[in-house]
Amino acid sequence: MKKIITILTIGVLALLAVGCSKTDSNSESKVNENGKIKITASIFPVAEITKAIGGDKVDVLTLVPKGQEPHHFEPNTGAFKELISSKMFIYNGLGMEEWLNDVSAKLKENNILSVDSSNGVDVLKDGDKIDPHVWLSLKQVQVQAKNIKDALVKEDPKNESYYNENYERFIKDCNDLYSEYKPKFEELKNKNFVTCHAAFGYLCRDFGLTQESVSSLYADGEPTPGKLQELVNYCKEHNVKVIFSGTLSEPKTSETLAKEVGAKVVKIYTLESQDDDKTYLEAMKYNLDTIYNSMK
Predict the structure, then answer these.
(1) pTM of the model
(2) Where is the signal peptide (predicted)?
(3) What is the Cα–Cα distance from 44 to 139, expressed in whole angstroms?
(4) What is the pLDDT of residue 18?
(5) C-alpha span between 177 and 182 (Å, rounded)
C-alpha cells in the first residue's frame, strides 16, 4: 500500500511540476508579498531552527502537519504543491524522510534548493539503524543550525550579518541550557529512564544517561510480552518511578508498564511535532527538567 501511495503522489508531483514550471521556476515567485523567502521544512524542529535563524526574512511552512507521526508520513497533493512553490526545502536527513528520494528529482527540476540539515553531525546508531532524532542533542542541533544558516546566507547574501547574529544567539541559548543541566546530571547516581519511544539517544549521549524504551527508533508496533517483561525488570532494578510518554505515542502500553511497576506516566516531548505551543528551546528545557526530577 505504501508503494502505491508513493507512486501516486510522484505522479501528482509530476503534473504539478508541469503546471508550475512556468511561474515557480522564477525565483521571484518564491518570495511572498512581504519579500520573505518561502521555505518548506520537513518537520517541526527543522522549522523551529530555520525560524530562529531566518527571523523576519523567511516564511516557513512545516510539511508534516501538527499532531502527525513523521516516521509514517507520506506527502499528499497539498504537501507537494507547497514544496513546489518554495524557494528552499530544508529537511532533517538521516533517513527521517523516507520519501525524499521519490521527490528529489522534481525538486531539482523546479530549482528548489534542498538542504540536508544533518550533514556533518556525529551520528548515533542502534544496531544497523541510524538514529534520526539528532535535534534532541543540544550539541548536534548546532550542526543543523550551521547548515541552515549557511544555506540562508548562500541564498540571501545581503542579509548575511542578520543570519549570523540570529545563529549566534541560537547557539548561545543551546549552550546555556546544556551548561545548566550538565552538572546537575553528573551529580546523580541514577541515570536511567524509560520512554515510550527510543528517540532520546542523542540527549542521553550529551548528558551521560541511559534510556530504555517501549517502542523502537521508528515507533514501529507494540512490544512483545518478552520485551515488556524486560522493561518491568529494568524498572524494578533501577527503581524507575516515571514512564515518559509522548503525545504521538499510543499510551496504553506505557500505562500498563507504569501500573505493573508502581510508576506514573509523565509527558515528554520528542519534538517530532509541536506540542502545547512550546518552542524548541522551551520543550528541550521541559524535557531536561522533567527527566532530571524523575531521577532525583
Answers:
(1) 0.88
(2) 1-23
(3) 18
(4) 41
(5) 9
